């Protein structure tokens, strides 16, 4: 065999091998997509749930617009906030076994609900240490 024939045969072998690998990877990707459809039908259920949530959000938005149009004022919302502050203050006082006179709620904000356990524990311990520190300094009674 001449050098030209050897190079030609090696190029043919290389191209055949590359083509076979590409074809195998394509068939494998098709098999994986089919297995996802067969074994994980929950993905389509999640899409349905998302559409339901979006629909309920639209209904809530329409209800909010109706409340605004029908004249629910901001003072009623402020009254709801003061009731919420009173409830939270009472709950904290009961938890700390102290009077509500010794507590002052400065702000209320929602904490992300999907926090890991260690983050929630850290927040609780941090809050307790600040409350104890403020009680010792006498700042809570102000």
From TrEMBL:
Report a single Gene Ontology molecular function.
Answer: sodium ion transmembrane transporter activity
Q: Name one GO biological process term.
A: sodium ion export across plasma membrane
Q: Which UniProt keywords apply?
A: Cell membrane, Membrane, Transmembrane, Transmembrane helix
Q: Does the keyword Transmembrane helix apply?
A: yes
**Chain segments annotated as transmembrane:** 15-39
Q: Where in the cell is it found?
A: Cell membrane
UniProt entry tagged with the keyword Acetylation: no
Quick one: where is this thing mainly located? membrane
Name by which UniProt lists this protein: Oxaloacetate decarboxylase, gamma chain
Originating organism: Tepidanaerobacter syntrophicus
